[in-house]
Design brief:
By secondary structure, the chain is mainly alpha-helical. It is 57% helix and 8% strand. The chain has a two-stranded antiparallel ribbon with strand order 1-2. Helix 1 runs parallel beside helix 3 and helix 2 runs antiparallel to helix 3. The two termini are 31 Å apart.
């Protein structure tokens, strides 16, 4: 369980860091790049050259794939005989993975319908997750939950 928590935290941190490398209000030139299944228009920061934009694209795709690969295999929070501690930890892990996806795709939510859909799907997943457990059983979950659920596009 600790390994899953560490992986989720790393995905969240990487998505947060990558999001900061992109500023959609400063355009230099559009670059078409391959994003998970289709072509998207990436507007690059003024200080990004072609090599930086390529690295950004590769990092985005790799991170997106990592999130999409881990999220569906996470254990359920409603499994039989789970302790409160295990449920609490799984809530954090699931939420961090979904919010990592929201942060990652938030960069392109206005430009790309697939990113917008990914954000909505991840947000709905968090809501369904939180509704699947009795949160009153958890007076304390984890401080990262406050940070991870406070999203600014």
């Amino acid at each position: 369980m600790l390994a899953l928590h560490a992986k989720a935290a790393i995905l969240f941190e990487r998505a947060s860091s990558l999001q900061l490398q992109y500023n959609p209000s400063e355009y230099l030139r559009p670059i078409l790049f391959r994003s998970y299944s289709r072509r998207c228009l990436l507007s690059v920061r003024k200080d990004m050259n072609l090599a930086d934009a390529t690295r950004f694209q590769q990092t985005f795709n790799n991170l997106n794939n990592a999130i999409n690969n881990i999220a569906p295999i996470l254990p359920s929070v409603t499994g039989p005989n789970l302790s409160r501690e295990t449920i609490r930890r799984l809530l954090v892990v699931h939420t961090l993975c979904r919010v990592a996806s929201i942060l990652l795709h938030g960069t392109f939510e206005d430009q790309d319908r697939a990113s917008n859909t990914q954000i909505l799907t991840a947000a709905e997943s968090v809501v369904m997750l939180l509704h699947s457990v009795n949160l009153r059983d958890f007076p304390f979950i984890d401080p990262i939950m406050g940070v991870s659920t406070h999203y600014h596009p």
